Amino acid sequence: MRNTIFVLLGLLFWMPNAQAQFNEDPVLNIENKDKRFLNYGYFLGFNQYDFKFDYENNTGRDILVDKSIGFNVGLIGEMRINEFIDLRIEPGLFYNPRTLFFPGFTGAEATDQNIRREVKSTYINFPLLVKVSTKRFGNFKPFLLAGPSVSLNLGSNEDNLDDNSSGTFRMKKWNYNYEIGFGIDFYLEYFKFSPSIRGVFTINDEIIPDNDPNSPWTGNINALRTRGLFVNFTFE
Q1: Keywords of this protein's UniProt record, alphabetized (predicted)?
Q2: N or C: which end of the chain has fewer CB within 10 A?
Q3: Coil, helix or strand at residue 14
């Protein structure tokens, strides 16, 4: 993930300079694309989710998160405000499994069933974003994205009566986030291609505590919030 981000960052900053150096007066592709009031498209990509823990007591060992790479897919609807500002919605499906390792078990209790919890999260995400772009440079245009989002966690187990004592890690179904990112529009011959990087940060506490307030799994957790990194490839 880190190497991919560095490559993408290099591409985002290098391409506009490359065009300026090698073609000072390029032929403009799909010149009127951004002048439409409404634009549509879709995106594909991948993600990496993490958790941020706030503890009741900070003297113990931290809960460990084994992160993995997930995937993103969704649709785009964009409304033009003016030459530099667009309002867009990007409903999408995001899948990413995470594994938690709880350090508070010793001796005979330190079994895989007690220590390890798989968190298979499938989110349906509904962001409302403001896209702020620079002036178009030939067939390239950098932009920033920011705005709120609401996500539905289909794997939350919120309605499950069992808790961690039965092996079930529970989280809330609905989460509220803010998103911020940047990217660049590439104007190709027939469509616009836009790679971007985005951070997603959950605002509300997602965890549902176990029934036992002294639970070795959730008793020391004051709050749990998702942190996510998305790399999207958009086609419009």
Answers
A1: Signal
A2: N
A3: helix
